[in-house]
Amino acid sequence: MGLGFPKKPSPPMAPFVPPPIDDPSFRVTALIDHHRTVPNLTPALSWGNDDGTVTDISHFEFARAAHRAAELLRPGRGGGEEVDGATVAILAMTDALIAQTLVAGCILAGLLPFPISPRNPEAALIHLLISTKAHRIIVTRASVGPIVDPLVESMATKYPSYNLTVEELPTFKQLYPYLSRETPDDPFTPYPLASAAPASTDPALILHSSGSTGLPKPIVLSNSVFLSFCRLENIAEMARCAPRFYTGMMPTFHAFAILVHIMTPLVHGMTSCLAPPATVEGYRVPPAPSPDSVLLNARKAKVQGIVTVPAFVLDWAKNDKDVEYLVSLNILVFGSGPLASKVGDDLVRRGVKFGQVYGSTESGPTNKLVATGLDKHEWSWMEMSERAQVRWEPAGNGIFEAQYLTAEGIYHPAVENLPDVRGYSTRDLFEQHPTKPHLYRIVGRLDDVIVLGNGEKAVPGPMEDILSASPHVAGVVIFGRGRLQLGLLVQPSPARAIDPNDQEQLAEYRNLIWSVVEEANAIAPTFAWIYKEMIVVTESGRPMVKSPKGSVAKKATLELYAKEIDTLYDTIEARSNAASEASLPFAWTVPNLQPWLLFHASSLSGKTIDHAIDLFEQGFDSLNATFLRHRIVGALRAAPVTLDRAQAIPQNLIYTHSSVEKLAHALEGLVNGSTGDGRREAAAAIEAMVAKYSSGLDVVLAERQIPSSDGAVVLLTGSTGGLGSHMLELLVPNPAIKKIFAFNRSNEKVSILQRHEAAFADRALDSVVLKSEKLVFMEGDSTRSDLGLSPQEYTELQQSVTLIIHNAWALDFNKTLVTFEPHVVGTRNLIDFARSTTADPRFVFTSSAGSVQSWNPSHGPVPEETLDASVAVGVGYGESKYVAERLLAASGLRATSIRIGQVTGSASNGAWSTSEWVPGIVKSSITLGHFPADPGAFVPFISPEAVAKAVVDTALLNGQEVPVLLNVVHPRPVSWDFAFGALAKASGVGKLVSIDAWLREVEGRAVSSTATDLEQVPAIKIVEFLRTTISRLTRVTFSTSRVDEITSALKDMKELDERDVEKWIGYWRGSGFI
């Protein structure tokens, strides 16, 4: 038999009459009472019964019940103005129908309802009560008495003057005397409503945050906020998609419950279906929802849609019968967190139709339930409401934070916390769809972004979603803040529980889940990959900490396993890993080493490696190189005959021998005690590359006209980098520039505009220039003869470009010349392009002072002219820049190469890339406790603003005669000891030691470096570069007489001072690097 009395015969039901929520004078009290006065006899809330019937509570009956609740809470509207707006806390475990009727009754009575989660600890409850001035608590003493009684005692002890009244929740029969059968003919005394409507700014309701990052915070929803949420499209779409929605699993104190139990039924007439109430005949604790009970109650209630959380969807996906039922629904809506993509993809393939609710207590439901133009497989993408005023704030790496701006009369977030405008910063991070710009997908939170020790920023959310979908996994947390690489903490499913201290079981479990780890790595940049060595498995007696929503409480879980994580980073050396991954090489000879190295290189990179091709051209990065070196050292240490050779492995071994073939020969030679090539051979290799790529440049060009002076058309490469961004900011507003093609490599994950926006935001540059009509963004590949452009694009450039500024070049102090060969290829392709253009273009190349890294200081200042290849011998970066200089000198173009000294952080905010050598020294010195002193050295640090001006001024130089080479360095360099003494002071270290002692200490760490060493002392990776190249260049002076004739950029520069240094330190601290 169903719950409720036998119904009286009634005429056919009239259609739902919606409330006039667009009326500016409309208030929440009117929203509730509208349904009584119309009256709307349509079902607002409902549940199914065991006998196949359903019990409906009409909108009319709900409104009358709210009047009864108001009378019970504030009889006859007594108490006057002193009671108006008083907070009433609701700390109860009761049925949703009673809880939400009580909320509505409070509002009608002029009180401020504040439903509170009983799961909050006592300290949080006290904080919430006091901060909202709540002196009344409505409770269900039979269930929350053990919480309330100690709470009252604590309040009396700690705050004796704070009056607190505890009252029992009204009963079902008090509120619903005609349960499910009330009509306008039934006796009823309306509650006396206020004579004047509340102001739009008056509070209507208080909710609270989860408290996951501290004490929960009360969040006040004013009338205008509440009603602006009601006007959002998401609510209307729910009613259209499924007239009867199962919503019974939402906790009544949660904002999601207010959305689906009150807002949607009262505004758009949707029937919100609940679990059958437990307290009709007397109080009982309502049973907690489970995946099984939700589907059972949904079937009974005859719904067309279900609102749920991802954890329940994961459970249903494992049962074919459950999935069959989900497929029969009009829609399955999830919210309160992301759904694992693998699970969602599988359910969509089987016919499930998804919708999603994104939002928060502070912002409301700001997305559309189902995005427009959405293909089935794109179920995880969302479109924001047109009413919600979203601002996408770049957060780096093509990621954006959603911020919602206040628009009076249209949309109003509950919290305004933006510094520049009225609006709410969600701290939720999204990526934009690569081809449908109106679609976005959530990838995590600003709080979750992991800033690695090298300054790279990893967003773990999407990877964790994939990992969580594995049937062998019960929980995951990716960690690595401030470290060199990411790690994974994983809790096995109960059937796969292991003893993580048993190395065999650990290896077996890592292998079991490795395929899903590889799947997660596939969507991440290489610096964010998880390696098998970096997987920590939880103990069965120490499970991960879970939040009330059932998700992993990351901070608490990482604290629980802090010791194991620290131990992992301390012992990451490959000594044990090498033996566990594969057998040792049979012999340290090339035929035996080559397959062994191929195995490791392939397993680390996730690709099939060719033994003869440069590793870095096949996707290797610095982290791969670090692990490969560790495994080599581990293998050498594992055999007594080669133990002593492990000490001789240089830190840059993989970079100087960057193919498996070369590495095998180097290791064979090292074990046998042989040595490598000298400087003469290196200079010969440079000359050979110059000869290879200058072939054909001696062909005389046909005479072309120098471009007219009506405005230059610029092709700028590398405009998303540090210097490139500053040049772009100067070029766009320059009246001498007619058009700019900003040319960069394509990126499938992030649009070229987003990359520019992120670069400008990082350096505090004026992003207005990015909206200029002068600016055209282009994506291509300079290593291709057609620059990776379509024939139409290439022809357009040929016919219009009059100035080329080539600025795109990777920075890496460990790679060899051959590794930079693709950059040389790109330069030659740009030269060929320039030789084919209609006009005779200017060509400016941003070279480096490193192209003369072997200049002998005793020869005086470096002249502004082309020099012999011997001066370029050293690290591959400088050598490759030298090759490009030579190519341009032989190109027959009006070309200028500019040797640029060490560029510092931006003058505006100190932004200085953490991949460069100066930040590496700073972080390492902070770890070591002292900075290096070098009394004989000078540092010609130069700001990017000055360099950008010098480059642009040189580029716009008119006439046939142009300088082939210029030097752009600070004309008044400061001493090394002044610069690094100021860095030491600003970083709080203060102490300096000789650079020789400092380098020896770094080299000592490099001998058997752990991952922690590499993360905390990044100078380990460039110690040979510091000892050789930097020690020479800091004693070299440069002539700047010719550049001074062209630009005032250097002459106008101020000398470096402590204020500059403090900005750099501030930027590195702000980015989490130090």
UniProtKB/TrEMBL annotation:
Transmembrane segments: none
Record key words, sorted: Phosphopantetheine, Phosphoprotein
Protein species of origin: Mycena chlorophos
Domain Thioester reductase (TE): 716-950
Protein name per its UniProtKB record: Acetyl-CoA synthetase-like protein
UniProt KW Transcription keyword: no
InterPro entries: Adenylate-forming_Reductase, AMP-binding_CS, AMP-dep_synth/lig_dom, ANL_N_sf, FAR_NAD-bd, NAD(P)-bd_dom_sf
Top-level taxon of the source organism: Eukaryota
Residue intervals of the AMP-dependent synthetase/ligase domain: 44-366
UniProt cross-references to Pfam families, sorted A to Z: AMP-binding, AMP-binding_C_3, NAD_binding_4
